[in-house]
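Fold this complex.
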Amino acid sequence: MDYTDKRQVGDSTVLGGVRNFDLTQILECGQCFRWERVSEGAYEGIAFGRRCRVRQEGDTLLLIGVTEEEFERYWRDYFDLGTDYGSVKELLRTDPVMRRAIQYAPGLRVLRQEPWEALCSFIISQNNNVKRIRGIVSRLCAQFGGEIRGGGHAFPTPERLAVLDEEALAPLRCGFRARYILDAARQAACGAVDLDALRSLPLEEARSALRRIRGVGPKVAECALLYGLGRMECVPVDVWIARALDTLYPGGFPPEFRPVAGIAQQYLFHYARTCPGALQLPAAVR
DNA sequence: AACCAGGCGCATA
DNA sequence: TATGCGCATGGT
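Structure:
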C-alpha cells in the first residue's frame, strides 16, 4: 500500500504518507485522456461518472469533492494505491536500463481505468497523437455522455453509442475510427464481448475476444487489458516500445518482469518518448 | 508540401 | 507468416 493514513476533511479525502506517486507523471504520460491540469500539481477529471479534483503537495494527496466512501469505492483502485510500487520497482531495478527509466519518473503508476473507456480510448488512439486523441474523447463525452453532478459528462456507455451510425459520429472528426467505435460499442452492448468477464478469463482467450472487434489489433487489445482490465502482465507494443525493445532489450524483457511487465512497459514508454537520447544509450551502460 | 501521430485491415507472395 | 499500402484528421 502506498499511503500511510487517510482522513475526510469536509467533502474531501486527504491521504498522507503517499509514496511512489507523482500526479503529473501519472496523468500526463499518455495512458489516460480525460484529466486536465488546472494549476501546478492539481488536476481535474471524470471517471465512474464522477468528477474528481486532485492535488498533490509532497507526500499529501487531496481528493477534493471525494468522500472517504467514494475514495474507497472508486479512486483507491483507480490510482492503484493498494499496490506497493516500492516492491514492483525493487524487482524491476535489478535491470540497469529499467533502473534509469524508473529514476527518470519514479512516481509513475499504471491506472486501473474503466474497461469500456480504456478500450474505446485506445481504439481512437491508433495512428493518432495524444493531443488529438484527447480532443476526440472530449467531443465524444460532450456529445453522448450523460451529464454529471458538478458539470461535465460521463464517458458514454456502449449502449448509448451502439444505436448510432457513422453519420452521428461525424462531429467527433475521428475519421476511419468511427466504424471501429461503433462495432466495439455494439459488441459490448449486446454481450458479444463481455468486458467485465475479461478480467478473469485466461489471457489468450481475453485477447482473442477483444480482437474480434474491428479496429482492435494486438496493440489496442493489449491496452484494453492493461489499462482497462488491470492485467499488469500485458505489454502494448507501439512504435516507441518497439524501438525501445529493439535497442535496449533485443532479447525482450527479462522473464522475471512478467507479472508486472505492463508496468515496466509504462516506465520505458515514458522514458523513451520524453527523455532526449534515451534510446541512444551506449551499449556500455547495459 | 510531404511527413507524422501509443495501428489496423486487407491484398499479395 | 511476412510485408506494404491506404486510411481521416490535424499539426509541423
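Chain A has a mean pLDDT of 96.
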